[in-house]
Structure of Nuclear transport factor 2 family protein:
Amino acid sequence: MTSQTPIDIVTTFLDDLARSDTAAALENVDENIAYTNVSLPTVHGKRKVAGIFSGMDRYSWAGFNYRMVNVTADGPVVLTERVDELRFGPVVMQFWVCGRFEVREGRITVWRDYFDYYDMTKALVRGLLGAVIPPLRKPLPPKVVAV
């Protein structure tokens, strides 16, 4: 059993992904995880989830970052409101995401992200424009440090 709270586990997981350390991130994931980007097919199992994120380790031009806007937990369920950033070469997309995680015995067993396709489309357009005109790129909001 871990002494970390479910919020700690989810935040560590996301921080590891943001550092492109998929191996460390996967230490917080259950072998039978169910990962869903809502409206897309659910991915089952740690190995398949690893396959999705391993590109960030292999390709320096691809990456993920995020800023937590709000996070709360009710027992093993963690809800996150985030701004996610996906990088594909010079194209940087930032968009709002609401995540729902379930943590059991110190591991993430369910990860469900909700997002808006219109918001993602706007992020893609901004990202494409920013690739051509870099001053149009917005940095992520600063990290908020709890007092």
Notes: Residues 117-132 form the longest helix (16 residues). The longest strand covers residues 91-104. The chain has a mean pLDDT of 92.
